[in-house]
Structure formats: C-alpha cells, structure tokens
User: Fold DUF2500 domain-containing protein from Oceanimonas smirnovii.
Amino acid sequence: MDKLVLWGIVVIAFLVLGRRLYQRFYDHTQPEHSIRVTVSGKHIKQFMGRSSKEETELPAQRQQFYVSFRARPGDQEQEFQVSEHLYEQLLLNSTGTLVFRGRRFIAFEPDDTSQDSD
Assistant:
C-alpha cells in the first residue's frame, strides 16, 4: 500500500511539472500579439506563506495580482497575472495596447489620455 501511495505522488508530480513545462514551451512558440483593449477587472489572490514548525508567528500572506482585459464590448475577457507595480498603476476602464504571447502577459501600453486623472 505504501508503494502505491508513493507512486501516486510521483505520477501526480510528473503530470503537474509536465503541464507547466508544456504551457511554457507552448507560450514561447506562439506569435506575439498586440491588441487595443480596455481594463475590465482587477483582483488579488492571497495564499498563506510557508513557515517552519519552530516558528510561532503566522507567516506573511503571498499575493498574486491579476488584471482582466476586454478588446470590445461583448468580447470574452482575457486575464493575466501582472506585477504589483503594474496592478496599482492600472485603472478600471482605462484603454491601451495589450501585448501578449499565448497565455503569457508581455506588456500593457496605456493611452496617454486614459491614465490622466489630474
């Protein structure tokens, strides 16, 4: 029974690793696209950090930042993980050019007029 559990864990680990490698290579082979979009949503996913058994304090939470873009009203949104810095700079409904390759976010170049709030 112990060997079965061990092999199950090994198989799952290979499947997860294989999927991540496949996605990385797939994205790398895709052409780079640039499209005009509007920022349609933003959200943060939080995860518990790791700690050792000796630590008595709770670890700091990790955060991942996501922004959704929409090319035209009625089109499906595309969501990408972005840096905290970019996440804080982007405003909902701002427009610009999204650059991406496969599922990988490359850049967002905002229009000059959509980011001005002064």
Notes: Residues 114-118 have pLDDT under 50 and may be disordered. The CA atoms of residues 51 and 114 lie 42 Å apart. Residues 32-118 form a domain with the OB fold (Dihydrolipoamide Acetyltransferase, E2P) fold (CATH 2.40.50.660).
